[in-house]
Amino acid sequence: MTTAATPVRARSFWGRARRCGPWLSVAPFLLIMLVGLILPTVALGFGAFGNGTSDVEAALGGGYRQALWGSLKLSVVCAVLGAVCGLLLARAVLAGGGLLRRLVLTASGVLANFGGVPLAFMFIATIGNAGIVTALIRDWTGFDLANSTFSLYQFGGLVLVYLYFLVPLMVIVIAPALDGVRAEWSEAAANLGATPGQYWRLVAGPLLAPPVMAGALLLFCGSLSAFATAQAMVGGTVPLVTLQIANALSGNVSADHEGVGAALALEMIVLVSIVMAVYWTIERRTARWLR
Amino acid sequence: MRQRNIVLHGLLAAAVVAGVAGCGSSEKAAEAQNNTAAAATATSAAELGGMDALIKAAQAEGQLNVITLPPDWANYGEIIETFSKKYNIKVNSDNPDGSSQDEINAVKSLKGQDRAPDVLDLGGAFAQSGAKEGLFANYKVATWADIPDSQKESNGAWYNDYGGYISIGCDAKKIAVCPTTFADLKKPEYKGKVALNGDPTKSGSAFAGVFAAALANGGSFTNIQPGIDYFAALKKSGNYIPVESTPATIEKGETPISIDWDYLNAGYTKKLAEKGIDWKVAVPSDGVYGNFYCQAINKTAPHPAAARLWEEFLYSDEGQNLWLKGYARPVRLPKMTESGKADSALVAQLPKVEAKAEFPTTDQIDGAKKVLTDGWTKALTG
Amino acid sequence: MTAVLEPTVVRTAAPRRRRRSVDRPIILAIAAVYFLVPLAAAVWFTIEDKRNGGVTGEYYAAIPAADGFAEALRRSLSLAVLTVLGVLLVTVPAMLAVTLRLPKLRPVVEGLSLLPLVIPPIALVAGVRDMLALGPNELAGTPLGDFLVSSQDPELPYILIIVYIVLATPFAYRSLDAGIRSIDAKTLVDAARGLGASWPTVVWRVLLPNLRSAVLGAAFLTLGLVLGEYTIASILLFETLPTWLVKISGSSGQLSVAVSTASLLFTWILLLVVSLADRRKSSGGTA
């Protein structure tokens, strides 16, 4: 098709270069992914199958399966909550414009990469058993958070802390999409007699659905691979695959478990590939009308 | 092994074809090997021509790479500084918070580079597996005879350096009555206050804490299950919180009771006193569990003479006393106490150990680790 | 037209405006509490002077005074700048090409861009280490082997840059993707080409200005990532700002928390400076 459109130029050097243009644009991306991602993954694969299939089988059983399930639960909850809260926050902030927008977007860039021991400590210092807010609440209302059913050191607490870096990530990622939803559209819809509910259901909603879903997928993957925060806060008491991987690959207790660690990492990749396949089928269906 | 390299070769060749710039020269690998070739295979100082020859060779190398040695761990900060000043050798301390596994990985992946670690301080299991893989150089320090046979590898691949016992550290200002046994920890007044130094499946000291609890509850070196059950019960009652105890959480008051190696807890006492915290350390009388770490020299160390000199320094009276200063029990302590070379003031400040101490064998530890890794999460989430 | 429809507009617009102005402050207030209170608690912990009572800035003052500060800072900043440039140069052309000319490649590019986020850094660095180990061993002397070895130069380790670019790609891709979708790139490009613009002009003067917020978002995330990344740098034994900060904090509780809050603040200020490049005063307007 392209050759029919530009028959003369195709014979010249520049014509051929122009046709190769798109491929040249994608080449650096593919190259870096090859060196920085594919090759290390292949090396991981060799590590996982280095002892035959025994490590892979071990990685699929017993405690590891519980960990996989735990990680999945955590990531789904965090992804959904984070996507919703991130969308609401982004909407509230970006509508203002100017200074608030600038401050929040830059802060989000910083916080989206925050985590680990410092993040855990921040929450421990706030609502841990000896936290400042815990003490304040006790002094003001007599309600002792430390002795209540809420605990920072379990699933719920972990979700609360994870949102600290997931929500900013969502904000940054959804901001360009929100910028694209123009005020004129809501006014035009109103002019044509639509209620706000209809506007959201039929105009802005479908427009925002793909990037919101894509953001949720990102949050899902991000919370799946996070581990330093969980390690500092809940140790082995909440079953998570990434903790097991860290123990196997970089621990002080069990030597010679690297094969299992690599197998677990491969498992995670497979899991996410499945999730991504599901995501693509949904995305293709919702975005169809946009084209 | 072969197959993996060939396939990786192929993929990397594809990367080259795609136009990877092959810039850079490998100047580093060449020079180190020449003049220290003799030191690289020496199995004792005598082989090199005596201590003076070793010192000279080490100073010619001028540098030493150490890894995973936090300055506040058993006084390593002062040990490194003393060594560096005494012999005029620059010590590069990498990845102080790393694990034993990280050390093994660094040895393997940085082989032949100037950045590779020269000497290692490892947990026993890693020392054994590393020796099996042939990663270590055989070397016997001048005071080799002082090290008990059960605490060294007969050819000199690895040797115990210092050790300690699991202890219960306690903030006496925040806790009315400090616990001194594992049985004490179950009391309701300690609700939400007891912490380990991390996850027992990853952290060596936390694993030791569970093992000590096992000993205190009817277990043995071959049975760690009572320890797992103990902590499961402790978590259910709310006494045990799974947060990783660090100096920050201790200072904040979140983990006023911390189960950790006695040399670490004792090391905190002075620092915390400055902040107005009275940190008491007690080795629990019902669960006495001790363990030693191991030293090893990287077979392909970029600075082999400096590495050997470092080991000689660590096992000299001076080095062993510096470890003593860090509240750790150096492996030559029994012999040094006999000969009077141990600094008695330092010995006196060690946390008191009541019962006669026994040490588990590496096989027993491996067996226990397997049980723990399989059962810990299940027990604590159930 | 407006005259006929005015009554309708007045009736529906007013209630909507009122409702909007109620939920916005509530959301902002909740967010402010959630994000700022824990930060304040940590900062309070670091400035408490436990010895004499009152407050002290000694832990923050100790950071620049510690040995090696300037070097670690310089190295991390260089890594950060190079990584941002690398990420943009790699992802922007690729995504534009995929959107406009090679839509079949989209699943490949999208899948590749999401994978780095899924593999835990610990596992990724294990694979990178194995790959690097080939340099001095099996591939010694070959240009590729030399490349692998020289990429680990402790002064400016560009293996770290490569890995960081890979790590930043998921974020950059999402940010840019949202931007590209929202500006309807195809129509813009067709219009510009129809008016006779060449490809460089189309990209530089039509597409990129419209993608400004997406590009800046990608840059922010990348900068934040490089200045905060600890695991990979520490396992590969390089000294960057985060690893240096952990090294100096040792076993002092207040100092270790102080370095993390200082690092947060520093990165935020840096990003604010970078954001001055976005001179757009008002927002695009959201519904």
Shape of chain A: flat
Q: Considering DSSP H and I runs of 4 or more, what fraction of the residues of chain C is helical?
A: over 70%
Order of helices and strands of chain A: HHHHHHHHHHHHH
Mean pLDDT of chain A: 82
Largest sheet of chain C: none
> Which structural class do the helices and strands of chain C define?
mainly alpha
Largest interface: A-C, 111 and 109 residues
User: Pairing-aware structural class of the strands and helices of chain A?
Assistant: mainly alpha
Describe this structure in words.
The complex is a heterotrimer of chains A (291), B (382) and C (287). Chain A has 291 residues and is an all-alpha fold. Chain A has helices spanning 2-5, 13-48, 54-59, 62-94, 98-111, 116-127, 132-141, 155-180, 183-191, 196-225, 228-233, 241-250, 258-287. In chain A, helix 4 packs across helix 8 (155-180) and helix 4 packs across helix 10. Helices cover 46% and strands 14% of the residues of chain B. In chain B, strands 3, 4, 5, 6, 7, 8, 9 and 10 form an 8-stranded mixed sheet that branches. Chain B has a two-stranded parallel ribbon with strand order 1-2. Chain B has helices spanning 2-17, 27-35, 37-41, 45-48, 51-61, 76-87, 100-109, 124-132, 182-185, 204-216, 225-236, 247-252, 262-274, 304-315, 317-325, 333-339, 344-348, 362-381, and strands at residues 63-67, 90-94, 119-122, 136-137, 158-171, 194-196, 257-261, 279-282, 290-298, 329-330. Chain B has 18 helices and 10 strands. The radius of gyration of chain B is 23 Å and the shape is globular. In chain B, helix 10 packs across helix 11 and helix 11 runs parallel beside helix 18. Chain B is of the alpha+beta class and 382 residues long. Chain C has 287 residues and is mainly α. Helix content of chain C is 77%, strand content 0%. Chain C has 13 helices and no strands. Chain C has helices at residues 2-47, 58-65, 69-100, 106-118, 121-133, 143-150, 158-182, 185-194, 199-210, 212-228, 231-235, 241-249, 253-275. The radius of gyration of chain C is 24 Å and the shape is globular. The relative contact order of chain C is 0.11. Residues 1-19 and 281-287 of chain C have low confidence and may be disordered. Chains A and C meet through helix 2, helix 4, helix 5, helix 6 and helix 8 of A and helix 1, helix 3, helix 4, helix 5 and helix 7 of C.
